[in-house]
Amino acid sequence: MAKIYTAALVVIGDEILSGRTQENNTKYIASKMVENGVELVEVRVVPDIEDAIVTAVRDLKNKVDYLFTTGGIGPTHDDITADSVAKALDIPLVKNTQAYQMLADHYGEAEFTPTRQKMARTPRGAKLIPNPVSVAPGFISKNVYVMAGVPEIMRAMMDYVARTIKGGDVIHSKTIPCRFPESIIAYDLAAIQERFQDDVSIGSYPYFKEGNLGVSIVLRSSNEQVLVRVSMEVDLLVASFEGAAINDSSLEFAKYDTDKM
Hints:
This protein has helices at about 15-20, 25-35, 50-60, 80-90, 95-105, 115, 150-165, 180-195, 225-245; strands spanning about 5-10, 40-45, 65-70, 95, 120-125, 125-130, 140, 145, 170-180, 200-210, 210-220, 255. The protein folds into 2 domains: about 5-165, Molybdenum Cofactor Biosythetic Enzyme, Chain A, CATH 3.40.980; about 170-260, TATA-Binding Protein (2-Layer Sandwich), CATH 3.30.310. A hairpin with an 8-residue loop joins strand 6 and strand 7. By secondary structure, the chain is of the alpha/beta class.
């Protein structure tokens, strides 16, 4: 069997946990991983506390092929990701001469303050992740990829990372909408999943739109031919229930009075 490549993400920042800032990076990273045949299997959000970052990195780095972090690599006092990752990996944090020169050239001698020089520190032997937006680089140490939290900068870094990592078979997906609650189709959908559990992953995701409760059925597989076959089965199953709902009041689509909710 082909190797399945996996990744995890540690989102770092008090501002995320407090609700002051919306986390917008996970979706982009997950999409890039799908394109590269890598499955994002876990995401954790941790505060700007060294012990929390160290614990998360140590716990996840040996469970996945690639561990990504976002946030906490700026010049301020609470940007402690580089220090924490170095500690988690048991590698000394040192001045990266390449990063230092890049930042010195960008800011100039007068503006290259000690706080900005802080952004040139990486674990010893780390490789840099280019930052075409604001120069200050991320870095790669072992299988840990440390990137900025600002979405525009993170996306630029992630684009570079995606071109350098190795993945497995690309995961294809198919979404089938249903205009009724998932409980109606759950039993039959589980039976299909059981028959194809080694080849296709089937998930159901409820939604509420314009007063109607429905569900999106998402099928995922690296085998496109099997995915098409199973999708056809699910399509037929959904169609059969939708047809029955027209004449059977017990299968009517769920409607809610939003004024009373």
